[in-house]
Specification:
The structure is a single chain. The protein is α/β, with parallel strands linked by helices and 500 residues long. The chain folds into three domains: 218 residues, FAD/NAD(P)-binding domain, CATH 3.50.50.60; 110 residues, no CATH class; 125 residues, Polyamine Oxidase, Chain A, domain 2 (Alpha-Beta Complex). Helices cover 35% and strands 19% of the residues. The strands form five sheets. The chain has a seven-stranded mixed sheet with strand order 7-6-15-16-17-14-18, sandwiched between helices. Strand 3 and strand 4 form a beta hairpin. Helix 1 crosses helix 16 and helix 3 packs across helix 4. The chain is globular. The protein starts with 13 loop residues before the first strand and ends with a helix. Keywords: Carotenoid biosynthesis, Oxidoreductase. One of its GO terms (molecular function) is oxidoreductase activity. This is Phytoene desaturase. InterPro entries: Amino_oxidase, Carotenoid/retinoid_OxRdtase, FAD/NAD-bd_sf. Pathway: Carotenoid biosynthesis.
């Protein structure tokens, strides 16, 4: 189990946590367990941040994250509190892990059986089966060393990387270069490269701008497996909230914060309805830019608007939540639909922002695994198309894109949904901005680019306001539910370190 620094110095303090996403929930649990009095203020009507749920007419959708990856991180988190994930939810390993439709008519399933996957790779390219094994060995090494020395350890200064222990363990890691460079060393076939890189969507990056170290995600995918928790990711949120309540955390929903004032030992956090919450410390799990530019006095900001404009944001998303009559036999619980050349789509996210004409996208059908998420005789399905943050988002654009996406699904998966839809909701750039105060409507936070990784991400503590801390996807270790869980630990450790 991952070791957590001594947090006992937090005993007797009071902390307000702004935002109840995974980072905020995690931080709250660590602080409360250490003896702090913790109050969580959540803007929306439910906890979980982007892991909100939409419930309507017998359908229940996970509105945000839907992949349960890196089960060891969840085990470590609950294990720290002498619990296990199974105390709160059960897991089902998916088989296949996911299905991929390539738009040239090809289809492939990735499954729990590694030998079967090896044969699939070999069928595409002679020698690729052995290279698949080599790639996963490298990914496993990167995962083991990367998690211990670069994910669970918050290295905020360049000198932190001069430590002999880091140098010794970093030897042989893929610390330099992009994912595209790394994958090309193993596979020539473009489809095999795509299979190894699809997880970049979860990191908010592209093959040419994401560090090669993140090949560790292939170990997560192929060796550790893809799971579904009872109740979806919302069930995990419920488990974390239950844990927080057991530890004494006080939760307030529908409590949007509009001001943070004060300093260590004397903070006041004000909500839009005029309530005031006094505390020794404040932790923000809200969007980092929103916290600095909208909640703090101008002279207390670490960064100005030029800084935030210069950042590379992870994609936003065009989402359709669909209740559909009947089954969708061609689709699996997780399905990816990929152009044979996806460079144009990535260019329209990062280089020349525009709505992609030939999109790569993801389909989730949790009713394949969980019969409680849709009425009998119906399927629960959502579509996610990664798009550039900050795009114009109008009703006319959404309607045009709806037709394009539904036509594309019919053409490339064989599932024509258009005359079977009984419930439909969309969610896009403006909704991410309105519901989550997300900068430029990003669905994830700061992208994991080569210039926005590790110490190059914003810090867990404010340099301008003593006693103000940050957690979540803008900080280290970064984007994704497991990373936000770990961010909560790193924030609590940073608080204890600075108080000691």
């Amino acid at each position: 189990m991952n070791a957590v620094s001594d947090l006992s110095v937090l005993d007797g303090t009071s902390v307000v946590v702004v935002g109840g996403g995974f980072g905020g929930l995690s931080t709250a649990c660590y602080l409360a367990d250490a003896g702090a009095t913790v109050t969580v203020l959540e803007k929306n009507e439910q906890l979980g941040g982007r892991a909100s749920r939409l419930e309507r007419d017998g359908f229940r959708f996970d509105m945000g994250p839907s992949w349960y990856l890196m089960p060891d991180v969840f085990e470590d988190f609950f294990g720290y509190f002498d619990r296990t994930p199974s105390d709160y939810y059960e897991l089902t390993r998916l088989d296949p892990h996911y299905r991929i439709f390539f738009k040239d008519g090809d289809r492939v399933d990735m499954v729990p059986d590694l030998e079967q996957n090896r044969e699939t790779f070999e069928a595409y390219e002679p020698g690729a089966g052995k290279q698949f094994e080599n790639y996963l060995q490298k990914a496993e090494k990167n995962y083991e060393v990367g998690m211990e020395h670069f994910v669970y350890t918050d290295r905020t200064k360049l000198s932190d990387f001069a430590d002999w222990d880091v140098i010794k363990n970093a030897r042989g890691l893929s610390l330099i270069g992009s994912m595209q460079d790394h994958v090309e060393k193993y596979f020539n076939h473009p489809k095999l490269q795509q299979i190894m890189q699809y997880t970049l969507v979860f990191l908010g990056g592209a093959p040419n701008n994401t560090p090669a170290l993140y090949n560790l995600m292939s170990h997560v995918d192929f060796n550790m497996g893809v799971y579904y928790p009872d109740g979806g990711l919302g069930g995990v949120v419920d488990g974390m909230v239950s844990l927080g309540e057991e530890l004494g955390v006080e939760f307030h929903v529908e409590s949007p914060v509009n001001e943070i004032r004060g300093r260590e030992g004397a903070f006041v956090t004000r909500t839009e309805d005029g309530r005031e919450f006094y505390s020794d410390y404040v932790v923000s799990d809200a969007d980092y830019r929103h916290t600095e530019m909208d909640l703090l006095p101008e002279d207390k900001r670490q960064y100005d608007e030029d800084y935030w404009q210069s950042r590379t944001y992870a994609p936003s998303a065009y989402l359709l939540y669909l209740g559909v009559e009947g089954d969708v036999p061609e689709l699996e619980h997780h399905t990816l639909v990929l152009p044979t050349d996806w460079d144009d789509h990535f260019e329209k996210i990062f280089d020349d922002p525009a709505w992609p004409d030939d999109p790569a996208y993801y389909l989730c059908v949790p009713s394949k695994t969980d019969d409680t998420v849709a009425p009998e005789g119906h399927s629960n399905l959502f579509v996610l198309v990664p798009i550039a943050a900050g795009l114009d988002d109008t009703p006319e654009q959404r309607e045009r894109y709806r037709d394009l996406v539904l036509d594309d699904i019919a053409a490339h998966t064989g599932e024509d949904l258009r005359d079977r839809i009984v419930l439909e909701e969309s969610f896009c750039v403006d909704d991410f901005s309105d519901r989550y105060n997300a900068t430029q409507g990003t669905a994830l936070g700061l992208a994991h680019t080569l210039r926005q990784t590790a110490l190059l991400r914003p810090p867990h503590h404010s340099a301008e306001v003593p006693g103000l801390y940050f957690t979540g996807s803008f900080t280290t270790p970064g984007i994704g539910v497991p990373m936000c869980l770990i961010s909560g630990q790193l924030t609590a450790e940073k608080m204890a370190e600075r108080m000691a």
